[in-house]
C-alpha cells in the first residue's frame, strides 16, 4: 500500500471505549450485513471508534468458516489508519508471535477499507469496568508482566504503538491462549528506525498521536515518539487499572486540541501526587522509565523484576488466574452459574 500521513490524536477512553474487536460475545443469531470477497460481515457491532466500525463476521479459508472481527473504515477518511494496520498485520503474521491478532484478509469496496482479524476476548477496559473499576493487585501484576513483554516483542520488530490504553489490551479468544494478554489497534503504529537501521531523530513533528489520558508527557508536545513514550504510556495504563481513575482529564474542554493540551498541563501538576498513591514498586518502575534516553532500549527485564519482587513479597503465584476467574469460580460454587 501507499505511504500514509501521520494520524491525528485518537479519541479518548471515554469516547472510544468500544472501539476495538473485543467488547461483546459472538452473536447467537448473526444477521448478514454484506459479503465482500471471502469476508462476510454481520450487522452486530463489536465496537465503534474514531477510525471505523468493528463488527462480527466470518471468513472462508480453505473450506473452513472462521469467526473474525471485521473492521471497516470509510474511504472518505483517507484510510490512513486502515493502511497502517493492514501493513502491520501483514508483517506481524510472519512473526508467529503470540499476543498479536492474526490477519485473515483485507479488501475494499466502493465505500470502505475492510480488514478481517482474529476474534479475541474482552478488553482490559471492559473487564475493569465489569469489576467496578477495581482489580486485585495480583491481577494487575499478572497483566503488567505480560504487557511489558508485548511491548518488548513489538519494539524488537522496530515498531512503536503510540496509542496504548486499556481498550487496546485484550484477552485471547477461545482456545489455549484465552488467558494471555494481546495487543490490538495498530492504526497509529510507526517504525522508530529509519530504513538504514538507525534510530529516528528527536524532532518536533507538530503532530499529536495517542489518547490524551494515557499518552506520555513528550507526546503532548507533538515531538517524535520513541520506545520510551510507549513505556510511559503503559505505566499510565497500569496506574489506571490500579487506582480505578486517573487524576487528570475530568474537566470539560471546548475541543479535542484543547483537551489534549489541558490534560498535559494537569498531568504535570498531578503526577507526583498520584505516584504517592501507588505501591513503592510502581513508583520505582516509573522513575526507571523516566531515566531512559530518547533512543535508549527500555530495560524490560528490569521492569519485570521490579514487579515480580512485589509479587514475591505478597506470595502471589503466576498462575494466570485473574480476578474475573476467581469471581466466576465463586459464582459456580454458590450456584449462581449454571453448569
Automatic annotation (TrEMBL):
Q: Which UniProt keywords apply?
A: ATP-binding, Kinase, Nucleotide-binding, Serine/threonine-protein kinase, Transferase
Q: Report the EC code(s) recorded for this entry.
A: 2.7.11.1
What phylogenetic lineage does the species belong to? Eukaryota, Metazoa, Ecdysozoa, Nematoda, Chromadorea
Q: Where is this region: Disordered?
A: 1-27
Where, by residue number, does the polypeptide cross the bilayer?
A: none
Compositionally biased, Low complexity: which spans? 10-24
The similarity comment for this entry is: Belongs to the protein kinase superfamily.
Q: What is this protein called?
A: non-specific serine/threonine protein kinase
Task: Note whether Nucleotide-binding occurs among the keywords.
Answer: yes
Q: Which organism is it from?
A: Caenorhabditis remanei
An example of a Pfam family matching this protein is: Pkinase
GO-annotated molecular function: ATP binding; protein serine/threonine kinase activity
Indicate the segments annotated as coiled coil, or none if absent: none
